[in-house]
Amino acid sequence: MATRRFLRALCRHAAAGADLVSLRRHFGAVTSIRSRSIIRPAIEQEKSLRHRDLWLLSSRRFCSVKTPEDDDMEDEYEEGEGGGDVDEVSDGEMAAGSRPHKREYTPEEKEAEASEIGYKVIGPLERSDRVFKAYEPVFAVVQIGSHQFKLSNRDCIFTERLKFCEVNDKVILNKVLLLGSPAQTIVGRPIVPEASVHAVVEEHALDAKVIIFKKKRRKNYRRTKGHRQELTKLRITDIRGIEKPEIPITKEKPVKVALKQEKVAEAA
Amino acid sequence: MALRGVWQLQKLVVSYCNWGGSSRGIRAFMETELPAFQEKNPQLEIVPELIRGQHPHLKAFYKNKNQRVVCVKNMTPDDILLHATRLRNALGRKVVKLKTRHVTKHPSVQGTWSTALKF
Predict the structure, then answer these.
(1) Which of A176, B8, B81, B115 is the most exposed place for a label (fewest CB within 10 A)?
(2) Model pTM?
(3) Quick check: B47 contacting A, CB < 8 Å?
(4) Whole-number percent of chain A with pLDDT over 90
(5) For chain A, which residues make up each domain, given as ranges?
(6) Beta strands of B1-119 (E only): which ranges?
(7) Residues of A in Cβ contact (< 8 Å) with B96
(8) What is the DSSP pairing of strand B9-16 with strand B57-62?
(9) Which among A206, A211, A199 has a CA at the least distance from the CA of A231?
(10) What gap in Å lies between CA A247 and CA A90, rounded to an integer?
């Protein structure tokens, strides 16, 4: 801590435009090698610092929110100290961690690329499409992000929140690792090309709250944190890329009709 | 939040107070973002309700007769829009910890493996 205070004061003086000599005079004999090595890069960098950085160096920080520049500065001037405070602040996430960062993906290509990382393609919204078919005995092993699922028609999956699709969107999952039916199995290496699984986004919801409780006994340390994961529920509608066996349905209906007619006849 | 294409949120009651300071955000939300939200979701019935002297909240009524209440006191209009969108995106189901991430009625296609099975 004392080292950090010393370094801060040093940087303030350096930013103010002091010489090495005057710095040495002010801070007394600087004997440690570490601080000596810091002074030179500090002075060198001071020349290349922008106005904003000078302000950052010279003024005290009262705000607890760390900007990426602030973290970089700390990294440079705190050699050897544990970087436990330096968090990876990405995309301007502020202190409220649950708020999603509002980065605008202006070109649609970027959205497509990002969605390919999650192996999904957004199709158009549904408008009176007959997408929800009867069950077919076909399965596919699909990867979404880092999770793999064995999917069949008509079942539901909870994945991490898929960013670029709204509720009631049709989604195509591209990364199919295995396809199977009662007669045939197609193994991908690692993906089966031209195979796809169609799904519909049912909901974007938050999972139940999980309380993360940390305690170190006899050390007066206790932390409680609540966490709700954002999930997406997908309903699988179609699996393409494999021949589906034909299911004989017509046999069932006449039997039921006959039974009903008999019952009606009995009642009458 | 759509089960097989059917939207689950039927009604959204926006309760606010026209005097209190905690309703400032929701009053701004009703002026700026609520009309756009209403246009995006024509299937949704949005009812503004005046409750004087009380904190504002959003009440969601789902098709499975489930209600969800979110208190929006002292929130910015952006936060309120986020909560309203979340209510619209969710099914009315009870928020319970998930047992499995994969819900299916037909777990096996080629037959369940057992030790007695011989290929």
Answers:
(1) B115
(2) 0.66
(3) no
(4) 22
(5) 2-81, 115-240
(6) 2-3, 6-7, 9-16, 45-50, 57-62, 67-71, 102-103
(7) 208
(8) antiparallel
(9) A206
(10) 52
CB A153 within 8 A of CB A111: no
Amino acid at B95: V
B54-98 pLDDT tens trace: 999 999 999 999 999 999 999 999 999 999 999 999 988 899 999
Asked if the C-beta of B2 comes within 8 angstroms of chain A's C-beta atoms, the answer is yes
> Residue A146 — pLDDT band, cuts 50, 70, 90?
confident
Could you tell me if A171 and A165 are in contact, meaning their C-beta atoms sit under 8 angstroms apart?
A: yes
Interface of A with B (CB under 8 A): 99, 126, 131-132, 135, 137-139, 147, 149-152, 154-159, 167-168, 180-182, 185, 200, 202-208, 210, 231, 233, 235
- Indicate which of B1, B82, B91 best probes the interface with A, i.e. most A CBs within 10 Å of its own CB: B1
Does residue B102 sit at the A interface (CB-CB below 8 Å)? yes
A77: pLDDT confidence band, cut at 50, 70 and 90?
very low
